[in-house]
Amino acid sequence: MASRARERVLVAGGAGFIGSNLCERLLGDGAEVVVLDNFQTGRPENLDHLRGSPRLDCIAHDVTEPLPAAITGRSFSHIYNLACPASPPAYQADPEHTLLTCVLGSRNLLRLAEAQRARYLLSSTSEVYGDPEVHPQREDYRGWVSCTGPRACYDEGKRAAETLAFDFDRMGRAEVRVVRIFNTYGPRMDPEDGRVVSNVICQALTGQPITIYGDGSQTRSFCHVDDLVEGLVRMMAYEGLQPGPVNLGNPNELTVSDLVERVLRLTRSGSPVTALPLPQDDPRRRKPDIARARALLGWAPRVGLEEGLKATIPYFAAELGRESPAFRF
Ligand code: NAD
Ligand code: UDP
User: Which domain of life is it from (predicted)?
Assistant: First the structure.
């Protein structure tokens, strides 16, 4: 692999939760990093601790619009496309824009990759499997997705984004890498973004009722962001033939009720639990098969859920101006 000191990296969506953690890692590795973000769900302050670096630049722009000269006039060796809201309330707030972000954003960034002979990585999602009939989900499972439901703007948008990426690759127009990210959590998640980890920790820390949608028996498999970023970097660096999409996630599956129980215990919270209706098309279960990531990238998550939550709870406590419980690691 070429030295990352010479990498000139564009991170679309770099002000978001995963993007800002990725930028931190890339700068630490010596890369030059340009963030392109419209700050729709990302926060400028996610990058505050990195602004002292002369190797970081940040450009406000929406990827659905033609890319500005400030981007096309530079030369990039690597392009990460993370630009898309990821939380269901956020991506459903403006479904038309979400779908266009996936499709037009991918097209604009793929054309940039083509023009600059840059390697392109798409952050796709486990949502391409929909409400899966196959468990755990392997990359060759084609999914069970509604194209008319409220999640479709995101699910189908990401499926189309994958299609476009593989078409560019097949036609020799760009070298692409596609990862399918499963539920990820950790520092710099937006406390307001509505995902289960952020909701439950914030509710527990503030004594608010814990909102469980449905009966809490649905499952997810939560990956700490440090592990995820390691997987992204390894996938971008992968030098073999087109590896196909690669799942990145932690196979440790648990129910939403289990997650709530752990957070209540770790925060020593007395918050009551309240049941709200299960959103339409909410997947019943989700767990990645990560055999491909292990074989191709030598990657597997290292941070267990308990350890990851203990590292994440103090972040949310600070965001909320609350005292964090003390943990013994
Ligand atoms: P996030 O909402 O925190 O970050 C997304 C970033 O993209 C934000 O900074 C946002 O402002 C920016 N953005 C959104 N639309 C844009 C547009 N049209 N133009 C420019 N910038 C735009 O979400 P995240 O959790 O960091 O997710 C990052 C990527 O990973 C997304 O593509 C998401 O689909 C994917 N992903 C995340 C998860 C997860 O659990 N976090 C799971 C699967 C896939
Ligand atoms: N969920 C919940 N309470 C919340 C937020 C979410 O019970 O306050 C549920 C949600 O219905 C889903 C699971 O937790 O079954 C994960 O939701 P999230 O939005 O974090 O991710 P996704 O649905 O995209 O996997």
Answer: Bacteria
